[in-house]
Amino acid sequence: MMRTRDGEIGIELEWRCSLRVPLLLWDIPMRVFAYLSVFLLGFLMTSQAAQTYAERLGWKAEDRVLILHIDDAGMSHGSNLGVMQSMEQGVANSLSIMMPCPWVPELVNWIQQNPTVDSGLHLTMTAEWKLYRWGPLAGKAAVPGLVDAQGCLWHSVEQVCAHASPDEVEKEIRAQIERAEKLGIEITHLDSHMGTLFARADYFERFLKVGIEKQIPILAVGGHMTHTQEENGAAAKALLPLAPKIWAAGLPVIDDLHTSVTSWKPTEKKERLFKLIRELKPGITEILFHASVMTEELPLITGSAASRHADTQLLKDPELKALLREQNIHLTTWRELKKRRDAAK
Q1: What is residue 329's predicted lDDT score, i.e. its pLDDT?
Q2: What ranges do the domains of the chain cover?
Q3: Which CATH code is given to the segment(s) 53-343?
Q4: pTM to 2 decimals?
């Protein structure tokens, strides 16, 4: 591990190999040995690359390991109800909280009654809705590039990228973590609302920096990336080389991420999710949901209210639980991933 001149934390791994082979007839055995050595080295490197992160964390090569994760916890009362029902009555097993949102205290009260729940932070740099918005926890004066003329976080990722510096983004990341810590939340992982922290390399560097410093797992995908490449090809290409560095820093990495459930029509969610689960490849996959309950205010906040309500109903469906058993899917959490990573050599 090293610290670069601008203060960012980096990890450097360098291979140096010098092989001199005289081109003489009597030296053929030495050349054969050299070629064999190079072949074996390539074979070992290929085998390691083919190994899933699930294997590295102690599962078998053929095991399909799954996180059923709910984003936007704390965003609204309906969001909180969706989280609670999906985890208490359904198969959801992980959540991430939007710390700047007004309904966080209700969720924190529930977490205090369920202290082993997998509770991450959905680090929030935007306030995308028209009628329901929030501002930065660091304070408008501390992060002026993150706020619009109304004093709220920007509506879109593009606006954040156009106005906010990496320093401001890092300040807000730390402010959201600090609030969670003061509220007594045991932070199991960090991810990014609307993917803002993946939109610019310098934002991701700060995201990674804080995660490594605090040894909190971040959402990092570095395995076969089957769905990640289909849904977010550019991000997948950029993140793949960073996965070994994240792993070397002591944080877990997953093999794949599926983010499209919310875009599916409510009537087709069950069929498509069941197909997705049946076709999962070995490794650790996270599937994202936005489970909510159709409260009076939810349709006033978002046009995706029906889709979010359908996520809750799907996660509570007994047939989904039966399918997971039938397919021998291993459910896991970020809490367990970190424990396994700490134990891995």
Answers
A1: 98
A2: 9-46, 53-343
A3: 3.20.20.370
A4: 0.86
